Amino acid sequence: xxxxxxxxxQARSSRRHASVGDRVFDTLxxxxxxxxxxxxxxxxxxxxxxxLNAASDSIKGGIxxxxxxxxxxxxxxxxxxxxIYNATLISVLxxxxxxxxxxxxxxxxxxxxxxxxxVLRKVVTxxxxxxxxxxxxxxxxxxxxxxxxxxxxxxxxxxxxxxxxFNLIIIRSFIEQLPESVIESARIDGAGxxxxxxxxxxxxxxxxxxxxxxxxxxxxxxSWFDVFLYNSSNVKLSxxxxxxxxxxxxxxxxxxxxxxxxxxxxxxxxxxxxLSIRATMTIVAAVPMIVVYPFLQxxxxxxxxxxxxxG
Length: 311
What we know:
- The protein is mostly helical and 311 residues long.
- It is 69% helix and 3% strand.
- It folds into two domains: 2-51; 78-238 and 279-307, MetI-like fold, CATH 1.10.3720.10.
- It is found in: Cell membrane.
- It comes from Cohnella ginsengisoli.
């Protein structure tokens, strides 16, 4: 108790004797961070307010952090689309399967090119890096996907991007910083390359793998252009982002700023506008990633910090 009270008195004494410059710096720092938080949160909160506001009132403008006329019609209109639920399921499956496969495959290749005994590791690494700067273009890519038989297939979302070069470099840099003695001890115990990777390297790489998983999941969840290119004729393989994009396109092509759309299932009329639909779509698309990110944040920061030390 005496030590605790002494430490408390010392802390108060330190605060009293803090220089004017330190107090000014702390005040400016708090003000800057507060402004940064406001600037960061305001667009999302404003979009949320617009999505929850009546469309007929939203077009007047002047909505900031709170809906002026609360209404759930915007969300009702979006979720009344017949294809939205199947598209959501496809997006979830695409994100989960694509993330797992991409992370595992990228980690295996990164482990291979990180090993000193692999004589072709520099050549293979350069070959991967070259693909970041040289691309065949949209038409050759489409022809390749067609010849592989991936048109109108779910796997067109997974296989073409199974190895991401940026992710590969991050994971390889992380693996190269692991203690070599750990891998050597596994070899002495008789473990082969695959067993060493599964039992030793993979668990140690969880921070950087969580970082790559977050990158991949965001890409898979937000992607819609590949749906347009390869699966636009197959409604059963449409994703949430593509269906939302079609809703927005339809609302933007209307002649007036506010249009009454008929609900196909109930016949009720719902008033929406391109502005309200755009805000609602933004919230619907962003919420899943916002929910997932806090669980990966600590791994994300550690993975980016440690994995980015070496190139």
